[in-house]
Design a protein that fits this description.
348 residues, alpha/beta, six-stranded mixed sheet, 4 helices
Length: 348
């Protein structure tokens, strides 16, 4: 399945149905009168976050969503049927932004979260509701309230407990393959990871989600390499795991490049707790590992964990540290179904 984290769609709620103009005419009844019913309410546009989705790719092919309008009223004071609500199912972590992408209108952070985005128009009044002591045969009626419509952007920010950052070829994909079943692509060239990867870690009776994003290079905030677009997927992470390749010419410089990009991006990434690991130590001797760890610790001002994503050396140490930093994870319970009649749209 292709990964897409941004999509522009058009949504429109249903218009209200028109009220009826009708008069009661029955045999043996001396006095008739108006009996036109009200129109039905138009359908709402509703967004709902569901489990099992992690991409917006289907919104590339289906971009227009229109809820049905309400039915018109009829005689005998019968109200028209309401239009069914249209429920658009999105992945957890989706944000709905205005057309200029300047304001977040909705933010879905848990399974089952359900929000009415556009309300359907109310039905128009039938002529029976216009009857008064001085106007006993009204012929006016309401046409129904209009719908609401908008172009909006959907932006997906994956929800994960820990996020992997580092330069290209720092070993992030190898690490996530070692600790999860993500099966990320691994290669001996830069930018083998071109889209975010998610994996679930099970360690010592605890489970947490790890997100791997494409590697950052100097100037990523200005668009160099793949840029910093995918950094949004780790904005919600509780902790970052910064991997530094032990085979880099200068591990301190490698650390600072990525750190500077996090600072330039903003959104609180630079303030998140960070676990620093010196990766690929299986290619080095103990003396060089100690020297590089000390150099990296001086540059970062934090403890450094030497690991090997290939052999698994130090991986348990890293996972223990991540679990301790993440703390207890909250389980989300889906909301109960309210039994409404709706039209549901969700990616296949």
């Amino acid at each position: 399945m292709h990964f897409l984290d941004q999509a522009k769609i058009f949504v429109r709620s249903g218009s209200g149905g028109p009220g009826a103009v009708s008069f009661r005419r029955e045999k043996f009844i001396e006095y008739g009168g108006p009996d036109g019913g009200n129109g039905g309410k138009g359908g709402d546009i509703i967004f709902e976050a569901v489990a099992g989705l992690n991409t917006l790719i289907d919104f590339r092919y289906t971009q227009h969503f229109r809820a049905p309008r309400g039915k018109g009223g009829s005689g005998s004071n019968r109200t028209g049927g309401g239009g069914d609500d249209l429920v658009i199912k999105v992945p957890v972590g989706t944000q709905v932004l205005d057309e200029e992408r300047e304001e977040v209108l909705l933010d879905f952070t848990k399974v089952g979260q359900r929000e009415v985005f556009l309300r359907g128009g109310d039905g128009g009044r039938g002529n029976a509701s216009y009857k008064t002591s001085t106007n006993r045969a009204p012929r006016q009626h309401g046409t129904g309230w209009p719908n609401e419509e908008a172009w909006v952007w959907l932006r997906l920010k994956l929800l994960a407990d820990a996020g992997l950052v580092g330069l290209p070829n720092a070993g992030k994909s190898t690490f996530i393959n070692q600790v999860t079943n993500a099966q990320a692509k691994v290669g001996e060239y830069a930018f083998t990871t071109t889209r975010p990867q998610l994996g679930v870690v099970s360690h010592k009776g605890t489970e947490f989600v790890v997100a791997d994003i494409p590697g950052l290079i100097e100037g990523a905030a200005d668009g160099a390499g793949i840029g910093d677009r995918f950094l949004g997927h780790i904005e919600r992470c509780r902790v970052l795991l910064h991997l530094v390749d032990a085979n880099d010419e200068d591990v301190a410089t490698s650390y600072r490049i990525v750190r500077d990009e996090l600072i330039n991006y903003g959104e609180g990434l630079a303030e998140k707790p960070v676990v620093i690991a010196l990766n690929k130590i299986d290619t080095l001797d103990d003396e060089l590992i100690a020297a590089l760890s000390a150099e990296l610790a001086d540059a970062s001002g934090a403890d450094v964990i030497p690991i090997s994503g290939v052999s698994g050396t130090g991986v348990d140490w890293v996972l223990d540290t991540l679990i301790e930093t993440i703390g207890p994870t909250d389980e989300t319970i889906p909301d109960d179904d309210d039994g409404e009649d709706v039209i549901e749209w969700s990616p296949v």
